[in-house]
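Page 42, continued from yesterday. The earlier attempt failed because a stray header line got pasted into the input along with the sequence. Redoing it now with the clean sequence only.
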Amino acid sequence: MRKDGGFTLIELAIVLAIIAILAAAAAPRFADLTGRAGDRAAEATAAATRSAYGIYLANNSQRPNCAQLFAQMDGVSVSGNTGTITSPNGSTTTLVCAQTGTPPVVTTVDICNNRAATYNNCGAAANRIRLNFQ
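This time it went through. Structure tokens are written below.
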């Protein structure tokens, strides 16, 4: 018998099985990358929100309301007391501002990445960063 070269069916099956096992082991690590990136975006937005609050307070000697806070931040689309930041890749970070008093001043800002559910305007506590300004 003469062997013409190439691979037998069993050799191909073994190689495909090894590739499938490696892919199954690697998939969970890559599946969560976008979620972790969204978490980092929310953390960066939290830092920017704290800075905007501090800048407004330093410049005006009074605490801002939600509209004044969002006006201090670049790239925030505002609708009422909710702001949205859209990244170049299309993911969004939502800011939900609460204010109280006369005149109204910011009390809390919840920051959520686009993975958050629609509970409490922003998502479950595990999916948000809450900033308190009281």
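Notes: Residues 84 and 94 are 5 Å apart (CA to CA).
Reminder to self: strip header lines before submitting.
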